Amino acid sequence: MIPTPEGYVVIRAKGGWVNVPAVNINGKTVFVRGKWLKTARVRGEEMMENELENPEAYVEKLRADKNRALKADIFTFTQKLPATRPKYSYPAEWESIAAVHLTSFNEWWESLPQETRKNVRRAQKRGVQVSIRELDDDLVQGIRGVNDDSPLRQGTANAYYGQSSE
Fold first, then answer.
1. CA 97: distance to chain centroid?
2. In sequence order, what DSSP letters do the residues of 31-47 get, joined into one string?
3. Is 145 within 8 Å of 137 (Cβ atoms)?
4. Considering the entire predicted model, what is its pTM?
5. In angstroms, rounded to a whole number, what is the distance separating the alpha carbons of residues 152 and 118?
6. pLDDT tens string 45-63
7. Nearest partner of 69 among 23, 29, 38, 110, judged by Cα
């Protein structure tokens, strides 16, 4: 892992890890990417359960930053499903996403094609362990172990090789 100076975060860009300027606004980390046109965005926003509340406050704090730690030209944020109409008067670009509403494992499992379920059962008979797991530290360490298996993945550098589980 590369060392991160104060006021920066590490992100993945063009197949490598780089430090980019960042600032904390309303408890969220906002970082900037880009060379000519600099874009500010909330780190990990795509994984947040709720959408960004009051984006105007973020824009105002970025404008009011006298040190101009984040010299952003554009501030982007997402609007979460099921909202399908713009909530704000800002220019918007719609992205096509695949989303599915799940209520239980059994509902999801039964909705899979029969052939997929059959292939899973065959794999179990051949020794593959299949289980439902809670997202906990043990699972994260197991995933990390798989990523640390090799510095190359299909002939390309594995960007997550040697990374901490944080």
1. 14
2. EEE-SSS-EEEETTGGG
3. no
4. 0.61
5. 32
6. 877 778 888 888 888 888 8
7. 23
- Cα dist from 9 to 24, 40, 81, 126, 128, whole Å: 11, 13, 28, 44, 38
H helix runs in 50-132, sequence order: 55-64, 105-111, 114-125
Q: Which amino acid is at 27?
A: G
Nearest partner of 9 among 55, 60, 43, judged by Cα? 43
The torsion of the CA quartet 32, 12, 132, 119, rounded to 10 degrees, works out to 130
Structure tokens at 16: 């490598």
Share of the chain above pLDDT 70, in %: 93
Contacts of residues 2-5 at CB distance under 8 Å and 24 or more positions apart, as own/partner, are none
